[in-house]
Write a structure and sequence with these properties.
Layout: H1 2-13, H2 18-25, H3 29-42, H4 63-75, H5 81-91
């Protein structure tokens, strides 16, 4: 963090070109401009590391489906993912058009 602040200070000093400052700090010009942009947007707090985790998961199973799978897993702990999937497909098809999870998407946290 202190290296990033030193880089920003050197860039804002304007005695050297940004390319030369980036070269001195051992970063690419693209990274240097990215750090400057983050500093302009959020100040010193914007220079911290950011998470690479996605903000949303498009294939996530709905909470109601996950809860039902977990309940079945607790009720029938010896059933595998394929059997739970088949049971849900055969016995709860009338509950509506909620998406069926893949057999591998059974709840593992219910056993923990």
């Amino acid at each position: 963090m202190s290296e990033r602040l030193a880089f920003i200070t050197a860039c804002l000093d304007r005695t050297e070109r940004i390319v030369d400052v980036c070269d001195r700090f051992g970063i690419s010009e693209k990274t240097g401009h990215k750090l400057l942009q983050r500093f302009r947007e959020a100040g010193p707090d914007g220079l911290g590391d950011r998470s690479h985790a996605p903000h949303h998961h498009p294939h996530r199973v709905a909470a109601a489906v996950a809860n039902r799978i977990c309940a079945l897993r607790r009720q029938y702990p010896r059933w595998g993912a394929a059997k739970l999937h088949d049971w849900l497909h055969q016995n709860e098809a009338s509950d509506g058009p909620w998406p069926r999870p893949a057999p591998s998407a059974s709840c593992s946290r219910a056993l923990a």
